[in-house]
Specification:
The chain has helices spanning 13-26, 39-46, 50-62, 98-105, 108-111, 134-152, 162-173, 189-200, 216-224, 241-250, 272-284, 308-311, 341-355, 360-371, 374-400, 424-433, 463-481; strands at 66-69, 73-76, 120-121, 182-187, 207-212, 228-235, 238-239, 255-258, 289-292, 318-323, 335-340, 405-407, 413-417, 436-437, 439-440, 453-457. By secondary structure, it is of the alpha/beta class. An 8-stranded mixed β-sheet has the order 4-11-10-9-8-5-6-7, sandwiched between helices. The chain has a 4-stranded antiparallel β-sheet with strand order 12-13-16-15, covered by helices on one side. It has 3 domains: 13-76, Arc Repressor Mutant, subunit A (Orthogonal Bundle), CATH 1.10.10; 113-130 and 377-481, Aspartate Aminotransferase, domain 1, CATH 3.90.1150.10; 132-375, Type I PLP-dependent aspartate aminotransferase-like (Major domain) (Aspartate Aminotransferase, domain 2, 3-Layer(aba) Sandwich).
Length: 482
């Protein structure tokens, strides 16, 4: 006993000794009222300093796990842990509800593509961490902690950190949004925002309309909330309005979900004219719109296109979900919902009931980073690098891949379509054997179609691997086409 103790680098040794002895007590190896070795004896047995053992004993006594008898030594205290309770074993899978089972079934992290070491992976559309502005993030943290550190480490407010709320309102106003009658709620990223909105809306028809294809996470959450999802085909400048109007004329929907800018997965930016026509249709049929502000800042060419919520003017029918996850740092789980103030009033209560509030520390770091004027500087650098990678990926696709359509006006990915009848699932199997993986496009479709498509995420792939990987995909695709 005691000689199996091993020191882990990076943690105080006395804490490790304390935790080791506590485990022996919990497991019953050290029994209540059993005398412990002297500090000198135990230091020799565990090969640590005597002062380390003294500190560990002090900590254990403070926790009520040992007691000392003057002149006699230290003893294990009586612990209120029962080791004789009946064994309770349950089959948890049988106790899962349909929502939990569906979530597991659609979990790509568990059932998606597994990358072996050395594989060239085009599956990620996360930002490249090598571009992260660590120096200014650290500065923002220190600046904010110096101002109100005690406040930031305590409980915050469900609605969010007010300085950040005010700053984000200004940010949205600069996008052309009329803030009259609107308010803003801070969330744990885009996904919580969508979940809160879907939880709040009355399910009158049990149906949602969206683009087809669309964001897989959105499809997953819509289905988890019990909605039937109807997808409308995409055209080169956005959703097919003629098809949309036909569907709207014969079916009622609880809401619509759209990604007008740098659409995931196609990368298409909806034209300004089409945005106006879309909002006219939504107004005519009185359908609330959930707008996903995905990748809005990653524009590589052309002028800025205002979001749908800006086109809506003083109207209150658009719910905007914003996040900097694909632009700045996804590790800071901060997103927002901008919508009618009455809706935000109810979302705030839902948020408070479910997660109390988003990390005030995370919010304050983002606030200070933005306040210090770092966003524009970072975006210039990020845009330049991602644009270069985007153009390089396009050139490689054009050189090596027998596609029928290549889309993507910006962002961190391209969407590839092959001839009708082509199967990218078969292509993926072939490419995986050759050390390359990508995201098959069918996961983004609401109706099980899209087998001839795939998404290429390039943000975290080196130039050399972009070319090598696309060459392998192209060669494998040509083999399947012959």
């Amino acid at each position: 006993m005691y000689q199996d103790f091993k020191i882990t680098a990076g943690r105080p040794v006395y804490v490790q000794v304390k935790e080791y002895l506590k485990r022996l007590m919990v497991k019953g190896v050290l029994q209540p009222h059993q005398k412990l070795p002297s500090t000198r004896e135990l230091s020799e047995l565990m090969n640590v300093s005597r002062n380390t053992i003294i500190s560990a004993y002090i900590g254990l006594e403070e926790d009520g796990l040992i007691y000392t008898q003057k002149g006699k030594g230290s003893y294990v205290a009586q612990m209120a842990i029962s080791v004789t309770a009946p064994l309770l074993e349950l089959n948890w899978k049988e106790r899962m509800n349909s929502q939990a089972l569906l979530a597991e079934e659609m979990d790509l992290m568990k059932h998606g593509i597994r990358a072996e070491r050395g594989t060239i992976s085009f599956t990620s559309i996360a930002p490249n961490e090598k571009l992260f502005d660590l120096g200014n993030v650290k500065r923002a943290f220190l600046d904010r902690m110096a101002v109100e550190g005690e406040v930031l480490l305590n409980y915050g407010y469900a609605k969010g950190y007010k300085p950040l709320i005010d700053l984000l309102k200004q940010y949205m106003e600069q996008k052309g949004v009329d803030l009259t009658g609107k308010d803003l709620l801070i969330t744990n990223g885009f996904t919580e925002g969508l979940d809160l909105v879907l939880s709040a809306l009355a399910k009158r028809n049990g149906a949602v309309i969206c683009e087809n294809p669309t964001h897989h996470t959105a499809i997953k959450n819509l289905r988890l909330h019990g909605y039937e999802v109807t997808g409308i085909d995409m055209e080169r400048d956005g959703i097919n309005l003629e098809q949309l109007e036909q569907v709207l004329s014969r079916q009622s929907f609880d809401c619509a979900y759209f990604i007008p800018s740098y659409h995931n997965p196609t990368g298409i930016v909806m034209s300004p004219q089409k945005r106006l026509e879309l909002m006219r249709l939504m107004t005519r049929y009185q359908i609330p719109v959930i707008e996903d502000g995905f990748n809005e800042e990653l524009r590589y060419s052309g002028s800025h296109v205002s979001p749908l919520i800006a086109a809506a003017g003083e109207g209150n029918g658009v719910i905007y979900l914003g996040s900097f996850s694909k632009v700045l740092f996804p590790g800071l789980r901060v997103g927002w919902v901008l919508a009618d103030q009455e809706l935000i009033y109810y979302l705030e209560s839902l948020k408070r009931a479910r997660s109390i509030h988003t990390s005030t520390l995370d919010q304050s770091i983002l606030y200070q980073y933005l306040l210090n004027g770092n966003l524009d500087k970072y975006l210039r650098r990020a845009r330049a690098e991602y644009k270069r990678k985007y153009e390089w990926t396009r050139r490689c696709c054009e050189a090596y891949m027998p596609y029928s359509l290549l889309t993507g006006d910006g962002g961190l990915h391209l969407f590839v379509s092959f001839a009708e009848g082509f199967d990218t699932r078969r292509l993926l199997e072939l490419c995986k054997q050759r050390g390359v993986i990508f995201t098959p496009g069918d996961i983004f479709y609401t109706d099980g179609t899209g087998r001839e498509t795939l998404r290429l995420g390039f943000s975290r792939v080196s130039d050399e691997n972009i070319e090598a990987g696309i060459k392998i995909i192209g060669e494998a695709a040509k083999e399947l086409l012959t």
